[in-house]
Amino acid sequence: MQIEERRRGILQALNSRYIYGRIILGGIADTTAQTLTSIRLKQQHRQEVKNERVSIEIQDLDRKNSYPTGEIMNSRAHLPPPFDFERLTRFMSFGFLWAPVQFKWFQFLTKVFPIAKGAGNVPALKRVAFDQLIMAPIGLGAFFTFMTVAEGGGRRALTKKFQDVYVPSLKANYVLWPAVQIVNFRFMPLQFQIPFVSTIGIAWTAYLSLANSSDE
To answer: Which helix (H) or strand (E) holds 112?
Structure first.
């Protein structure tokens, strides 16, 4: 009895710790996404400036360094936006709110599909099937709903988000997460499942950040 209570206490402490860890990981992921977007826009801007210079040189060889004001302003309009701290806060907030739900879900799967010695991979595959068929669609829906509402969007914006981004993101989820979750459920103890998923989730959350902002 005391061993079980101690075990629950340790798991609760770890859960609490990794809830705060999810905030940091969400921040890292969104910062990565914003940095990638900034780099991509800067490259596009340099290419546009280069194309404009070539065009101007072709049109007027006698004025190689003369640029029409309208074209210069047009190039500057495509400069990358400044770092969005509000967007970063939204991602960190979602990570904080979703981590306890994810932990309880893993506890449920562990209880319903226990992995015993000699049981093979069947329980792990059942966990993955339940996780991907039930929690993955719900989690993505919760993410896009939270982000859209936090951005100030209403029903129309939410509907557009789901039409444009939800299904492609769910397909990408099925490419990555089944393999990750097989490793997670088959080999990771319960107390290490959230940290393992969260670490892989840095790249995934960066992708979601890019997907969420793709239609802005």
So the answer is: helix 85-112
Instruction: Using the structure block, give the residue that is written with the tokens 């990555």.
Output: 176
Residue type, 184: N
Distance CA 136, CA 132 (A): 5
**pTM for this entry:** 0.70
- Residue 72 confidence (pLDDT): 45
Name, in order, each residue with C-beta under 8 angstroms of 137's C-beta and a sequence gap of 6 or more.
Answer: 170
> Given pLDDT bands bounded at 50, 70 and 90, which one contains residue 71?
very low
Q: Which residue has the tokens 């992995």?
A: 115
Half-sphere exposure for 26 (CA within 13 Å, toward CB): 22
Compute the residue count for the chain: 216
* Cα separation, 122 vs 214, whole angstroms: 39
Question: 135 and 104 in contact (C-beta within 8 Å)?
Answer: no
| Cα 172 from chain centroid (whole Å) | 11
Q: How far apart are CA 26 and CA 94, in angstroms?
A: 8
State the Cα–Cα distance between residues 64 and 172, nearest whole angstrom. Answer: 47
Left if phi > 0, otherwise alpha if psi is -120 to 50, otherwise beta: which for 82?
beta
Which tokens sit at 20?
A: 């705060």
Here the tokens at position 63 are: 């004025």
| Residue of 84, 97, 96, 134 whose CA lies nearest to 112 | 134
Compute the mean pLDDT over every residue in the chain, rounded to the nearest whole number.
78
173, HSE (Cβ side, Cα atoms, 13 Å) = 22
